[in-house]
Amino acid sequence: MRPAVIHLALLAGLAAPAAAQTPDPVARPGNEIGTGQSLPFSDQPSNLAPSAAPVPYGYRLPTPDIDENASPVAFLNAARRALAAGRGGEAQEALERAESRALTRAERPSRADQPSRQQVVERITEARAALATGDRMRVLELIDAALAAEAAESP
Questions:
Q1: 72-105+115-153 is a CATH 1.10.287 domain
Q2: I want to staple 94 with a disulfide (CB 3.0 to 4.6 A). Which of 21, 29, 33, 78 is the partner?
Q3: Are 76 and 124 in contact (CB under 8 A)?
């Protein structure tokens, strides 16, 4: 009886690593893994507001033609140029990147859960909301306000 128990334990030990293996990454059709390129692609703003028919993924938006480590001001200017040229998806991507850069800040751990009260962040948030409604003029006004706020907040 003992050899049977040992044999079963050995078989169970050999089967466990095989079950723990993960499959190769699977990509959506049109996605080349590791290139940053994926489908579906759109130059229209998307996923800015709740939708009656949500999709499981968002469209890939065009990347602004500036350094990915650029400042919030550079991304705000890129958003302004893209919006003025009618490239709403690129404007959205630039606004989102500007907001991310502006949110990079040192904060005490006890205050990490509190939203930023920076004027530049609040204007960018409002600009993204205006973009969701299609109000281009308001978006441009808010980008200008964010640029002014960033200039005032910078040392």
A1: no
A2: 78
A3: yes
